[in-house]
């Protein structure tokens, strides 16, 4: 099962160490503490009358940690549903997230504006780096089980870079609002990943088909991921919104959207699944679409009512996507989307962009009061037109699809130790696997009912 | 194993979608942002000199997220101890919690006072909705494995409503203090659920007896739930107490109560369990009783010393309840309490109410200083008499038992797709189950020791 | 498998209950709320113009909860990697942590200064108690699988006491800085545990060798522990640093150190492990070494660049330690270090102390501004010399090794129900084990593919 092609003894260490050394050198030359993490600068602020509470750390660190949990536990465990790919799901998720957050700090720093030639870092850059990482992990979901960790690192290098460019165009050049990243994170990550999956299409993937499914306990591990993503999504969407009512409102809108989405998901799953039974795939994924779909409008005066409608719609299209669209994507478009990211991040992300455009267009001074300036007019002179948001969405889709296309071809080079068609979705190719419980006679003995009884006697 | 009676293709979607549509309509007509989530109103406060930090979000959101984790991960995974009911434990917990928190927002809003015909929502209503949800999940524990998701949704509709009524009587009419809900959440949820379980008594449940127990890994999943509940209980009890010393003290009292409770639980478990061994049921449940038992008095000047005594007692009665009382409840009173909620929430809740009554009666200006007014005299003109707390407890028990009785009879109607006696505690009846690991020849091959060796070779 | 020697019916209850009663009595006589948890005292502060936000609770409680998760979930699940020791790993972790945090409150209170004969408790004492507990759990890792819970409680009593003494000497007498505990927590806990393991050396441990390894799902449970430790380490290192830039900077330095450490770990693991495959032992442990190694210097102006170099080094030595040093420790020094704490906490802790000494020695007013006073000059009149830090490290090592030696001999007494060599790493000796899934005919039937198909039909 292991041969020289997939042996990573040289490839993975080289990738990890070269990338880390490059990062360390760039951090050494370019990165500085910002005003709130630098001892001297912050104590100057204190001397000028600031309180320690004005340090952004206290506004954002709890949200940051929730986002961090989503990235490392949420995404990592959500993908453990595959029966023999748990080590890789959690482990590669861990590796590429740890890499991407460093690389994202640099790329976002370059693009979003340097301070005297230096990138300033603090809690907000940490959250933004985690966000960018989330986008990479979405793409990872599309190619899960079919890629080597070296491919994933290369993909991360490119995707993070393009993410930063797209984010700059959408948020800074076009001045769109997208605090929870319906466009910049979810739509971008999904379509980038889908395009990579398209280029890496494996016509003989059915040779590994028997491993491309879950078992009982792997589905329970995956639910850990799902539930953490679901619970902390309010923190995700509100992590970088403005202090005060904005953070508060965004968290609450997301909470309601997700709750409504969950009811829609259970209802629809029982309708479309076999024999009126619930399908774990829907519960694990579609119940989260409500968080994606209020990523743009969540900070606006969407109201709980509006949030619930959006969440309900998102859950509905996500379940329907899993049932009806995914097979079509695979058969007609030759996109093998392992985790169904099109249904969880793609379509709900586009829905989120549309909802955001409409909600922004409806914003008035009458509804937002002085909050209008704070929320919108920092970027626009008037409330944004839906046209601008539409352009943002189009740019995002364009960069994602084109970037994914190019990345796919780069990843197709036969130098990264990718798994053969016959051993996809299998940890054993990249991980030393432990022996199985019960494979030793002594253990089996202990585990027969008679022995267990004796043991407890 | 599936037949038309338990086929939920129509019933579950109808329940989910009708309920969600009703909720959305009611939210549309009745629910508004409160002063701290509304852009215009909050910016007025800012203009009047408030700081963004005065927004209650920053006082309570970290606690809210901890409570959220308890509701969705804590309760959900605690119940995965059943060997073949993990999907339902986590999944139905997820469904009814997502429903109940929305419904609770409405019911609590109705009952606790509308503002010009509108229900105002913000972080405090979110926490209170999660609290009410916790009560429903406690009742779920009593009927776990024996109910369909449609029954659970119907139960939630009624229980949430009665919870709000009882909470109003206890906290507003009677003016009792119960920040952590020893009475309103734990006692109420437990006795409501026990009464429902009584009415739904199944004389032939022993036909499913072989599934009503744990296996090795299901007990480990359950420990995830236990530990999260244990760790975050300080946040639960302090989430809605007054700012400042009250939140601080409540969290600390709960922390000490739980620590002492854990020592008592391990000690007692080894005494009563077979052959001096520890019993996972005790560890998973009784170690938490200390959090329940300081739900009322935790915000008072109970002292760490007092908290530890209460926790120690709670752990003791909880273990003894599991060992000696639960069999009696089942045999004599015909109450099949799957999770033993009587031992974890019922008795410790009543203990908590008593401790709260005594502690409140002992409160003096000398001990509390100006805190006395802040803590007690908002509701009473003098420190509360134990009599008032006793009435509160009696009302809670009365509404819970009567409500559970009526709910039980409603749930007994043969229209909800309840499982037959032979297939209780079994996911397969409501969930599409994955094939088992090792059931495919290819996988089995991989998993024999020889193959594993080859794989690693 | 059970005999009178390992039957804990008397021993464990006596240990738990006697210890808890002693603790409760000492708390009753000695422990008081501090100014911020006492109703009267805090309301005096409020009357004097303080805001509720000045209550330290709001600065530290989110970090405390993250630390709490590390102690109970992080350490607990990290150790579940053993195939048949999951109940004990999580369960004994739970027991000794619940004990140690109470005992630590007393010991740290005694040693660090009483207030009018009383120990004052609040959020900071809670964090410090959790820190001390962490040290005990590190030692637990060294003896995992080979000790009874009674031995572990006795070990905790002694280790917590010596921890408090050492912490007092290092932080108060010598005035060293060690906010994240590279020395006081990690170095101390590791070498204490290693010495205990040395004294408890079992020449015939290979009789249990087949259980001293993981299985597929136990490794996934362990990853829950790893990821939580990794994510929340920034909170650990920053939990008791000064408000403002210090907490902010410490969290960020730790975040970068861990990210770089992870890349180094993956790279090195593929180099040294069999056939270019990744080894779960490395990923689960070495990726965390970056958090240990910035425990001292993390609060200083180490810069992200410096943090990454330290993290990279820590990951490297940790993987190399697992590969090359652990076997030597076992064969030559007769130290059977079950979890490899020497590689995760020992060497990286010493590295952290050295890095801290160097970073402190380089501190200048020019870099720290007024922060210099705040950070260093509270303890020293000038910036600390590396010599002082070296003495601190030497004292820590001395107390840990000597303390571990004595503790080991005390634990060697044949009165604690320790497991025989043939049944180490086995839950069944101290826990009632559930029957196995599939051991009942009914269940097996359900689980054959044919039946599963029927079930889903």
TrEMBL record, chains A, B, C:
Gene Ontology biological process terms from the UniProt entry: ammonium homeostasis
Cell compartments where the protein resides: Cell membrane
Record keywords, A-Z: Ammonia transport, Cell membrane, Glycoprotein, Membrane, Transmembrane, Transmembrane helix, Transport
Membrane listed as a keyword: yes
GO MF terms held by the record: ammonium channel activity
Biological role: Functions as an ammonia transporter. May play a role in the elimination of ammonia in the gill.
Protein name in UniProt: Ammonium transporter Rh type B-like
Species name: Salvelinus namaycush
């Amino acid at each position: 099962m292991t041969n020289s092609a997939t042996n990573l003894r040289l490839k993975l260490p080289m990738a990890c160490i070269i990338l880390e050394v490059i990062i360390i050198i760039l951090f050494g030359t370019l990165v500085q503490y910002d005003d709130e993490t630098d001892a001297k600068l912050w104590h100057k602020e204190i001397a000028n009358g600031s309180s320690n509470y004005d340090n952004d750390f206290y506004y954002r660190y709890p949200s940051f940690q929730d986002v961090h949990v989503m990235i490392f536990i949420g995404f990592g465990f959500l993908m453990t549903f595959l029966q023999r790919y748990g080590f890789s799901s959690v482990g590669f998720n861990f590796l590429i997230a740890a890499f991407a957050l460093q690389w994202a700090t640099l790329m976002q720093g370059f693009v979003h504006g340097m301070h005297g030639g230096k990138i300033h870092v603090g809690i907000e850059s940490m959250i933004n780096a985690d966000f960018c990482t989330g986008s990479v992990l979405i793409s990872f979901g599309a190619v899960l089980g079919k890629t080597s960790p070296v491919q994933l690192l290369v993909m991360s290098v490119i995707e993070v870079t393009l993410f930063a460019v797209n984010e700059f165009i959408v948020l800074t050049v076009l001045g769109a609002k997208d605090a929870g990243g319906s466009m910049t994170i979810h739509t971008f990550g999904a379509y980038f990943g889908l395009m990579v999956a398209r280029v890496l299409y494996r016509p003989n993937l059915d040779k590994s088909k028997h491993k491309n499914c879950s078992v009982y306990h792997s589905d329970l591990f995956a639910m850990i991921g799902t539930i953490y993503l679901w619970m902390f999504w309010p923190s995700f969407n509100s992590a970088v919104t403005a202090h005060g009512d904005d953070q508060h409102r965004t968290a609450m809108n997301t909470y309601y959207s997700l709750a409504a989405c969950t009811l829609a998901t259970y209802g629809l799953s029982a309708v479309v699944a076999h024999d009126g039974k619930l399908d774990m795939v829907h519960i694990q994924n579609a119940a989260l679409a409500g968080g994606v779909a209020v990523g743009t409008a969540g900070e606006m005066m969407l109201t709980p009512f509006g949030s619930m409608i959006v969440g309900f719609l998102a859950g509905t299209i996500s379940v329907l996507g899993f049932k009806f669209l995914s097979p079509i994507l695979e058969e007609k478009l030759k996109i093998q989307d392992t985790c169904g990211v099109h249904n969880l991040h793609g379509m709900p992300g586009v829905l989120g962009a549309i909802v955001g455009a409409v909600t922004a267009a409806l914003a008035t001074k009458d509804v937002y009061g002085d909050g209008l300036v704070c929320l919108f007019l920092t970027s626009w002179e008037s409330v944004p037109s839906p046209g601008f948001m539409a352009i943002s969405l189009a740019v995002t889709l364009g960069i994602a699809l084109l970037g994914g296309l190019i990345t796919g071809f780069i990843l197709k080079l036969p130098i990264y130790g990718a798994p053969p068609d016959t051993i996809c979705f299998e940890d054993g190719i990249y991980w030393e696997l432990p022996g199985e419980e019960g494979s030793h006679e002594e253990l089996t003995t202990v585990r027969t009912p008679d022995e267990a009884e004796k043991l407890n006697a």
